[in-house]
Amino acid sequence: MTTYIIRRLFQLIPVLFGVTLLVFLLMHLTPGNPAQLIAGETASQSTIERIEVSMGLNDPLPVQYVNFVTDVAQLDFGYSYRNNTPVFEEIKPRFWITMELAIYSTILSIFIGLIAGIVSAVRQYSVRDVTIMIIALFGMSMPNFWLGLMLMNWFSIQLGWFPPTGWGSAGQVVLPVITLGTAGAAVIARMTRSSMLDVISQDYIRTARAKGVHEQIVIYRHALKNALIPVVTVVGLQFGTLLAGTVLTETVFSINGLGRLVIDSIMARDFPVVQACILIISVIFVVVNLIVDISYTLLNKRIDMD
Amino acid sequence: MSTNESILEVTDLRTSFFTEGGEVKAVDGVTFDVPAGKTLGIVGESGSGKSITAMSILQLISHPGKIKGGEIKFRGKNLLDLSEKEMRKIRGNQISMIFQEPMTSLNPTYTVGQQIRESYKIHQGLGKKEGSKRAIEMLKLVGIPSPEKRLDQYPFELSGGMRQRVMIAMALACKPDLLIADEPTTALDVTIQAQILELIKELQDELGMSVVMITHDLGVVAETCDYVAVMYCGKVVEYADVRTLFKNPRHPYTVGLLKSLPRSDRDQEELTPIKGTVPSPDEMPVGCRFAPRCPFATNLCHEKLPSLDDVGDGEQIRCWIYTDEWNGDPGVKVYEPERTTEG
C-alpha cells in the first residue's frame, strides 16, 4: 500500500512537468507582448524594453521556464497586470469558494448517482429503471449554464426560495451546487447501473445468495463493492469536467470563485492570473485522480500486488 | 422407489424461462429422490436442465426464470411453500451448494476468512473471533495447508483447486444435511478433480450428509454416486442405482451416452456418438424428446410422450419400449439379457 502510494507520487513528477510546460508555453505562444500590456499602449519603446529586461523576457526560453517553475514552487505567481497585486493573494480567497462548490457538487452527484444507479439496476427494465434513466439522459444532455438559468428563473425569480446570486449563505449554495452536480449525478447513475448489472450476474453473487445472505446485503455488500471500481474512475474523471463547469456556473450565479476569475482575467488579458488559475486547476485535477487511484487499492486488492 | 428414507423428494418440478421468444421449459416435470446419506448423480448434456434443477431446489432462479409448479420436499417439508425468509435459513445452512467455476465463485473483494465467517454470522450468529476459529477448522478439514494464513488472503491469491476447497469449506461450514455440487470439478485439472471428488466423499462420510452431484461426466458418476438420474431436455429419462445403470442401461439415451464413453471394463470396438443434436427449445418434439435421435423410434414415440414409470428394482424409465403399448420391434430390448443375476 505505502509503496504503491510512493510510486504513484513519483509518477506525478512527469505529469506536473508537462502541466507547467504547457501552461508556460501557452503564455509565450499567445500573440501580444506582456511588457506592452503593462506599460500601456502609449508607452515609449525604451519603457517597454526596460520592462522586458526587468521581467526577464529577453532570457532564453529554457531559462525563463526554470525561473517560472522555481517561482511557482514558492507559490509566487507574479503580479496581476490589472491590479499590480501578487497573483497568489488574488487567488487565495477565490480558491476556497471554488473548492467548496466543487466538493459539494461532487458529494451531491455521488450520493444521487449511486442511489439512482443501484435502484435502477436492481429492477432492470422496470418503470422505475426507465424513468431514472430518462431523467439521467436529460441531466447529462443539459448544458449547465442553461440549467443554472432555468433553476434561477424558477426557484429564485418565480418562487423566491433561494437568492439568485452570490455565495456564502446556505440558501446561496443550493442552486449552484444542483447546477454543477446534475451532469455528474447522471453520469455516475448510468455508470453505476451498468456496473451493478454486470456484477449482479457474476457467479460470486449467486454464491452469496446460495449461502443464505439477505438480498439487501447481497446488493450493498457483495455487489456494490465490486461495482464501485469503475464508478470511482468516472468520479475522478468527472471532477475535471466539474472544474471546467465551475467557470460557467460561477459566471451564471455571479460567484467570486476561481472560474469567474479566469473569465475576467482572460477578458482583461491578465495573463499571470490566467496562468496561475490554469496551473492550480490542473494540479487539483491531478491530485484528485491520484486520490482516486489510491482508493482503488481499498476496493481491489489485486492492484497492490503488481 | 428406494428402501432408504429420502431426504429430498422432487416431484414434477417445472421451471421455465420467459423470454421474448416465448416460454422455455428448462425443467419440465422432473421427479427424483435423494436417499438420506447417499449421493444422487444428475447426468445430462448441457441444456438438459440439470443445473436449473439444482438452482430450483434452493430457489435461486432469477428473472426471467420462474418455478411454475411441482413439489420439492426436504425432510418432508415442501420448500416451495416457504417464504423467502424461511428459505434463507435453509440456504447455506441445511442445504448448501458448490459451483462449477471456483475462479469466479468467490467474491474477489473479500478475504477467504470474511467469506467463510459470513456463513457462521448469518446462520449461527457467531462473531469474528469464534467465526475465525470455526473457519480455520473448516479449512483444515478440506485440506488447506496453513489455514490461519489463508484466512486473510484474497481469492486471487489461491489456485483453482484451493479455491474450490474454500468453496467446499464455505458450503459445509454449517454442516448441511444436503450438498448440491453443480459440476464441481469441470473447471479443474484432472489430478485436482480426483482430489476434490475424494474430498467430497470423505466429508460426506464424516458429516453424514447427502449429496446431489450434477455432472455431464459419467466417469464422475461411476466414481461418486449411489443413484443416478439421467436428464434429457428438461425431463428425467432414467433413474436407477449406479450399478444397474452402468451394467444394464435401458433408456436408448443412456445406452447412447455409455456407448460414447471409453470403458476399460468391456471390449469395445469403437466409440459411437449419439446421432443428431439436442433439439432447441422452440422446436421441442411433441412426443418423446429423444425420438428424433433414437434408433428405435416408432410413430408412437414421435406422437406421444411416455411417462416415467417404475420398472421394478427401484428403477424408473421414461420410454415406450418398456411399456405394454410398445408396437415396434420386440427385439430392441436387447439390453435385457445382459442383466446379471443380481438384478
UniProtKB/TrEMBL annotation, chain A:
CDD domains assigned to the protein according to its UniProt record, in alphabetical order: TM_PBP2 (cd06261)
Main location: membrane
SUPFAM superfamilies per record: MetI-like
Keyword tRNA processing found: no
Annotated Gene Ontology cellular component terms: plasma membrane
Keywords, ordered alphabetically: Cell membrane, Membrane, Transmembrane, Transmembrane helix, Transport
Stretches assigned to the ABC transmembrane type-1 domain: 95-292
Annotated TM spans: 12-30, 101-122, 134-155, 167-189, 227-253, 273-299
Source domain of life: Bacteria
Gene Ontology BP term (one): transmembrane transport
Any matching Pfam family: BPD_transp_1_N
Signal peptide (UniProt feature, chain positions): none
Topology in the lipid bilayer: Multi-pass membrane protein
InterPro entries: BPD_transp_1_N (IPR045621), MetI-like (IPR000515), MetI-like_sf (IPR035906)
This protein's record includes keyword DNA repair: no
Cell compartment(s), UniProt: Cell membrane
PANTHER family registered for this protein in UniProt: DIPEPTIDE TRANSPORT SYSTEM PERMEASE PROTEIN DPPB-RELATED (PTHR43163:SF6)
Family note: Belongs to the binding-protein-dependent transport system permease family.
Name of this protein: ABC transporter permease
Organism of origin: Allobacillus saliphilus
Automatic annotation (TrEMBL), chain B:
Cellular localization per UniProt: Cell membrane
Superkingdom of source: Bacteria
Keyword terms: ATP-binding, Cell membrane, Membrane, Nucleotide-binding, Transport
GO molecular function ontology, one term from the record: ATP hydrolysis activity
Boundaries of every ABC transporter domain copy: 8-258
SMART domains from the UniProt entry: AAA
Any one GO biological process: peptide transport
Bilayer topology: Peripheral membrane protein
Principal location listed in the UniProt entry: membrane
Keyword Heme: no
UniProt cross-references to InterPro entries, sorted A to Z: AAA+_ATPase, ABC_Ni/Peptide_Import, ABC_transporter-like_ATP-bd, ABC_transporter-like_CS, Oligopep_ABC_C, P-loop_NTPase
Cellular component GO terms held in the UniProt record: plasma membrane
Homology family: Belongs to the ABC transporter superfamily.
Name assigned to this protein: ABC transporter ATP-binding protein
Organism, as annotated: Allobacillus salarius
